[in-house]
Design goal:
heterodimer; A: 290 residues; mainly alpha; MetI-like fold; 2 domains; 13 helices; 0% strand; B: alpha+beta; Rossmann fold; five-stranded antiparallel β-sheet; 8 helices; 35% strand; binds adenosine-5'-diphosphate; binds magnesium ion
């Protein structure tokens, strides 16, 4: 008697009004739990009465004043972080895509070892990477007789280093599942290897490429442990700036600028989803035949 | 359209010979099937013709042109893959148009050709849909349309119906064959299904362990198999050991299970041979009934029987290692196991195979 099993009985109950209410409360609670930090930050940024050193939520009196008070230094650091993130995503794609092709398609004997080396940045604690790059910056700086600490180059190299493996990983995953006969089909229809890449391979690995680039962007944009070693006073990434700000004195303008960043990231996600199209992702992943 | 010629083409992977030197000529407009068990080198042969593999030795010609050194995209052919390999990110229309776009044809011509082909495969309304929105049989037809859209010289198909169920497979066999005949394209088809090969082909090339065993029409390879493997692989057959006894004018006498019989071939006496007799060539009588004069006959006992719809299969023990299997027409009353019977077959109803 299948209908008597506890599992079935549970489902049956979930279909009743009480069950439905319960189910929806759980769903709403889960979403609230996930998004609470975002909601609180955004809400608190509108609060007129908040004093230095405290977050108050829900806001009691509304104002946009905090947004006008955001100091220029925060805008500078946001701009620096954005530059680094875009650079990491771009370099990640330029280095990561060929690397993924090599790892999946080539017949090199030491492929497993190479793959491990490419993954290494994900396995080393980021603090260690930060210290390592600080040492590197000093060493190179000494050798070239330049002061590279707190320079864009130092930050950029370190960010690209941690971000690229995400592109390698995402593109490798999609290439391993790639049906090689699609490329043969293109060749049989007269497409040169280059045309086959442009018309068949590239569009089909695009979802992996976008996913990898997005990861690379986010990892770079959110990084504190590495950037904190390579930043200098007056030249900080946004997360480092917030971190420092919280250590010294908490300014509610941070809530305002964080809200702007959240909105920007949200828009970026929407844009990427629009461009890549969730539909494309599903169609390529889906094997269902009707 | 053009013929396809293989001259001493072979392929080895390291020390393993996947294909031994093969000579094969597929005439213009002909439908030739490569048939054989899994691993016999069918796919290897097809991929050599396509250019996805380089032969270890030998030359490949399309028409009169040597294409051995040409990469696939410069050979003029179309290919249908087992699970279709349609481009999932393109609509059906874009899939079919692919080869024409690569050849830089004008848009108007491409559109007209795509519509013509959708008509040909009887799928007019799917142009804007994506491959995953089609059934297996529909995808298969699109794959055929895509492969012939650019009017290639040669069409290659590797087990294109392998993923379909039996009913659909039969109707697709007919459809592919009729499309092939309408456009008259030279076709090399790969399957391990002998019925499929028989249904579709002008000629069948039977392969085994990287070697071509026999090539001929379906009737040829069924009625006149030239090797033991072909006789056994195509349809059902009783393989019987015999010793030649003495040559006649157009026949020889042989000894089977201690009794005399005749074969339709002149042979030296004292040779061990194998005789192949198809089940439908064998007649069954009760031991006391007389047989047609001139036919070979062996007495025996019914060992077992099995009803399989259109015929009753009966196994008769005639004193050989294996019982002889024959097809008994269902309209007559079948004998019971243990009954004393005699089997008989016409002299020209058996084939002589090299040992
Ligand atoms: N890439 C390869 N490396 C080594 N051996 C292979 C390779 N491809 C095929 N073979 C071998 O070649 C033989 C013929 O294979 P194939 O042409 O695929 O057979 P079929 O299509 O008739 O089933 C098989 O024994 C197979 O194991
Ligand atoms: Mg095969």
């Amino acid at each position: 008697m299948i209908s008597k099993s506890p599992f079935k009985r549970l489902w049956w109950r979930l279909e009743t009004p009480v069950g439905q209410t319960l189910l929806w409360s759980i769903v709403v609670f889960a979403y609230l739990f996930l998004h609470a930090p975002t909601i609180i930050v955004m809400g608190a940024s509108l609060n007129a009465s908040s004093q230095y050193g405290a977050i108050s939520f829900p806001p009691t009196t509304f104002t946009l004043a905090r947004y006008w008070e955001i100091p220029a230094s925060q805008f500078h650091s946001i701009l620096l972080s954005l530059k680094l993130a875009f650079l990491s995503a771009t370099v990640g794609v330029l280095l990561g895509v060929p690397a993924a092709f090599g790892l999946v398609r080539s017949k090199l004997p030491g492929k497993g070892l190479l793959a491990a080396i490419f993954r290494a940045p994900l396995q080393i604690p980021t603090v260690v990477i930060g210290i390592t790059f600080l040492q590197l910056v000093y060493a190179v700086g000494d050798a070239l007789d330049l002061d590279l600490s707190g320079s864009f180059v130092g930050l950029a190299v370190a960010h690209c280093f941690v971000a690229t493996p995400y592109v390698v990983g995402a593109v490798t995953a999609i290439l391993q599942r790639f049906d090689g006969r699609l490329e043969e089909a293109a060749a049989s229809l007269g497409a040169t290897p280059l045309r086959t890449f442009r018309r068949v391979t590239l569009p089909l690995i695009m979802p992996g490429l976008y996913a990898g680039a997005l990861y690379a962007f986010m990892v770079s944009f959110g990084d504190v442990p590495i950037s904190i070693f390579l930043s200098a006073p007056g030249y900080m990434t946004y997360p480092v700036e917030i971190f420092m700000g919280l250590e010294q004195n908490f300014s509610p303008t941070i809530l305002a600028s964080a809200t702007l960043v959240i909105l920007f990231c949200f828009a970026l996600m929407l844009f990427v989803q629009r461009v890549v199209g969730l539909e494309t992702l599903l169609r390529i992943g889906g094997t269902g035949r009707r | 359209m053009a013929s396809v010629t293989l001259r001493g083409v072979s392929k080895s992977y390291g020390d393993v010979a996947a294909l031994e030197p093969l000579d094969l000529e597929i005439k213009q407009g002909e439908f030739v099937t490569l048939l054989g068990p899994s691993g016999c080198g069918k796919t290897t042969t097809l991929r050599l013709i396509a250019g996805f593999l380089k032969p270890s030795q030998g030359r490949i010609l399309f028409g009169g042109d040597d294409v051995t050194e040409l990469p696939p995209h410069r050979r003029e052919f179309g290919m249908v893959f087992q699970d279709y390999a349609l481009f999932p990110h393109m609509t059906i229309g874009e899939n079919i148009a692919f080869g024409l776009v690569e050849r830089g044809r004008p848009k108007a011509e491409i559109d007209a050709r795509v519509r013509e082909l959708l008509q040909l495969i009887q799928l007019k309304d799917v142009e804007k849909r994506y491959p995953t929105e089609l059934s297996g049989g529909q995808q298969q037809r699109v794959a055929v349309a895509r492969a012939v859209a650019h009017s290639p010289q040669v069409l290659l198909m590797d087990e294109p119906l392998g993923a379909l169920d039996l009913k659909l497979r039969e109707s697709m066999q007919y459809e592919i064959r009729s499309i092939q005949q309408r456009i008259g394209i030279t076709t090399v088809y790969v399957t391990h299904d002998q019925t499929e090969a028989m249904n579709m082909s002008d000629r069948i090339a039977v392969m085994n362990k990287g070697r071509l065993e026999q090539i001929g029409s379906g009737v040829d390879i069924y009625q006149r198999p030239s090797t033991r493997f072909v006789a056994d692989f195509i349809g059902q057959i009783n393989l019987v050991s015999a010793i030649t006894a003495g040559p006649g004018l157009e026949t020889s006498s042989v000894t089977i299970a201690g009794r005399n019989a005749r074969i339709a071939k002149t042979m030296m006496p004292g040779l061990p041979i194998t005789i192949g007799i198809r089940p439908e060539q064998i007649a069954l009588r009760r031991a006391d009934e007389s047989i047609a004069s001139g036919d070979n006959a062996l007495p025996g006992k019914v060992a077992s029987r099995q009803f399989s719809g259109n015929v009753m299969k009966i196994w008769v023990d005639v004193g050989l290692q294996e019982p002889i299997m024959l097809d008994f027409p269902p309209r007559a009353a079948p004998p019971e196991p243990g009954d004393a019977v005699a089997i008989s077959w016409p002299v020209d109803g058996a084939v002589v195979l090299p040992e």
